[in-house]
Structure formats: structure tokens, C-alpha cells
Sequence to fold (407 residues):
Amino acid sequence: MVKSRSTWCIGLSLILVTAFLCVSAIVQAADKKEIVVGTPLPMTGILSMEASEQKWAYEQAIKDINAKGGIFVKEYKKKLPVKLVVADAESDPGKAAAALERLVKVDKVDLLLSTFTTNLSLPTCVAADKLKKYYHVTTLFPELWRPQKFQWSTLYFFSVVEGAEVPFKVLDTIPAADKPKNIALLMEDTTDGRGLGGALQEGAKKYKYEIAMVENMAVGAKDYSSQILKLKSKNIDAVIMFSASQDAITFVRQMKEAGLNLKYFHGYKGTWTTDFANALGKDAQYVLADGFWSEDFPYPGSKELGERYFKQFKKRSVSIGLYYAICQTLWTAIEKAGTLDGAKVRQAVLNTQFKGTTMGDIKYNPDGTAIFQLGAFQWWDGQLKTVYPFDMAKGYKVKVAPPWNKR
Fold:
């Protein structure tokens, strides 16, 4: 009799616990009011100009999905709006990792969107893996990401090997009489800069160009006179440079003051921002920039997104379509997964063919990477004109720069 009563009590307890858990889950589902997405962007410091376009694109993607009622999440049986939380990475690798950790531990974000550049993205990927929080990443070279075998991030960016061939493909289109003869590489002394510098040297060999000078550049330097003197002494007439926007602006101003005349100046990372053109005005003319996207590319929604940016800033962007697209893929993956569980959302990213984004169709590889083709653009009459890919250039040909005193 005692045993029977004891068994009955245990059974009742199990029923009550189960009922409590079910009610608790229902209450939690009912209480979930939004999807909180965090991003550790460098809103201050040397990378703030670049990050401003990235933040704008994230905000537009969130505005657009929320205008549709949000994202349907099967686990919660309803659409949830998206909320963006930005933590300032201060353009510093250590602070970027700390910012991501703060987003997870303090702000309790559900998922994470990318910061900017390899220098900040690698340490934040490490932090995301440690915290087991899914991180949707871009602006990090896949050749540096793959060996780490991260389990809590995915990556959408261009291959550094292929991207380093672009300047030489463009140089090949210049008539022999105008073609630069002495090429220099000026590389920011960072992980990105060193990686790209090595790839550019290999690209030069492949396309049979001689590199006359390779020089590292300190980040945030105020004086580039020593590099400029070396360039003049070696009769350099073409420079391929990797730097942040602030450093690129400083370099161009000092190059003009010193009378360094370059036929061809191709910048990576630092010469495509709206702030670069605003700061230099007509002196930005002829400068080339790398870029991820153009509103003129034949991808759904690209023209509209570009016009929205132009209406606000009176300039064109070659970056915002990338950042908008990774939001589009994340929103789709959440709905496919039917949950905010990061591991399941990541798996949905790997399993889904994303159709019709502002970067076109995107498919991730089993290793967690997806690759797109890097572009090249030239500042002309205050706007960035597509130079490469050639089939997207719509007849525009790269222009060789005359001396400063003949502009």
C-alpha cells in the first residue's frame, strides 16, 4: 500500500513537472517579441568610414524585413521583428572580440552579423566559437578563415588570390604607349595587408609585371613623406595600395603636395568610401578602388538600394549590396531553420540556395564559405564607374591619370 502510494506520488510529480515545462515553453514563446541581432562594428577609429556604410546597409535590411512584419519563426509560431544592437569595436582587434562578447553576455543577442576587415573578423570569429554563438561573417579572406575550422561562423567574401589579380587584368587593357612601367605595392602593416601583398606579388608574376618596390605602411600614420620620396627616386608611376580610408586620404594629399605623378593608383579598402571622395573632391579623380558590388549589377533590388543610398548621401556605394545580401541570407536561413538556435541557423545557411539577393544567387560550400568576384571601380566626375568585371563595365574604360599640373 505504501509502495503504491509512493509510485502514485512520483507519477503525479512527473506529470506536474512536465506540465510546468510545457507551460514555461509556451510562455517563453509568447513572450519572445523580437530577434536581437548584434554586430561589433568599428564605429570609431581608423575603420569608422568603412563601417558607416556597413551599418547603414544592415539598418536598411532590417527596416525592409520589419516592414513585412518581420521573420516567421516556426518555434514561436509567429513573425518576429528584427532589432540591431551595435557594439563599437573601436577599430581594435582586442576590443572587437570584447565587443562581441559583450553583445552575447550583456545584450543577450540571438545571432551575430559581421564586423569589418580580417583584422577584426578573425578574433571575433574566435570569440564566437568560444561562446557558441552563430556569427554570419564577411570581409575576411577565406584563405585565412578556412584553416581555423570555425564551427560557429560562416563566411561570404572574395578569394585574396583571385582578388589580387584584378589590378593586372585592368592594367592589361591600357594601351602600350600609356601603360605604367614601374609598379609599387604599399601595404598596410596588418594581417590583411601582408596577405594581400604576397598575393599581389604572385599576381604580378602571373600577368608578367615587375614590381619595382614593396613597402609596408604604418596604420594611422600622419606622414608618408619617406615612402613618397622612395617612390619618386625609383620613378614609380603606378601604385597599388591597401589602407584604411583615413590613411588613403592623407597619402593622396601628400602625394599631390610632393608632386608625385602616378598614371595608375589602385586602392584596396580605403579608396571607395563616400568620405574618401568628399575629403579629396576633384583630387579623387582617376583613383581606382576595389569594391564588392554596384547598383548597376543585374541583381534584384540593387538599383533601388543604390538609389536609396544616393538620395541620402549624394554618392554611390560599392559596398552596401554585400552587407544587405548577408542580411537577406540570414533572414532566409532563420525562417528555414524555424528557430533561433545558432547551430541550426548555421546549418540552414549551408543547406540553402539563396536566390535573388542583391549579390545575385549565393550558395555556401560545405566548409562554410561562399565566394564572389571582386570588382574594380574608378572615381570619375564624383562617381565610381565600374571598370571590372569587364562584362559589367558597360563600355567604360580605365583612364590613365595626367600629371597634377595638367588636370
Summary: The domain at 163-291+375-406 is CATH 3.40.50.2300 (Rossmann fold). The chain has 14 helices and 17 strands. The first strand starts at residue 35 and ends at 39. The chain has two domains: 33-158+301-371, 163-291+375-406.
